[in-house]
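Quick one, T. Sequence first:
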Amino acid sequence: MPHFASKLAVENALREFGVPYTILRPGYYIQNDATLKPALTGLGIYPMPIGSAGIAVADVRDIAEAAAISLTEEGHEGQTYDIVAPTMITGPGNAALWSKLLGKEIKYTGHDFDQWEQNMRSRMPSWSAFDLRMMLQGYFERGFESTETEVARLTKLLGHTPRSYEDFATETAAKWKA
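Structure tokens:
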């Protein structure tokens, strides 16, 4: 998919030209869903078309922490770290979690990719909306699983278990209610 093709090209170039590197590969950013407050608290919908196959997510705080560690400590040159949470997410699962946390029914709106892309085109360049649509369609069709090995490796790097979507949603719902 286009969203990952450019990243793979950069990774390959780093390796080919012998540039010192550490690669961080995050999953879907958990904090993307903080922008869904109007949809969740107002309309009562979870509108991200991520499907039910399950996708890996990453808390931006874990990304920042992994970057700081890999830049300031020895032994990370030439390494690739997948930044993923200990659990995966799904559209229906996220809707159920937000329903519980917000005390109201939240419905998963499914996968109308045409409508989602059109809505995103009002917020970003058309090429970016299309690129994200293709990524989300890939997630919907095939999922984007993390492995126990990836989670264990990140846990070792961070010195703690990566943050979960559930933790993020609990923190965020509490802030929204305050």
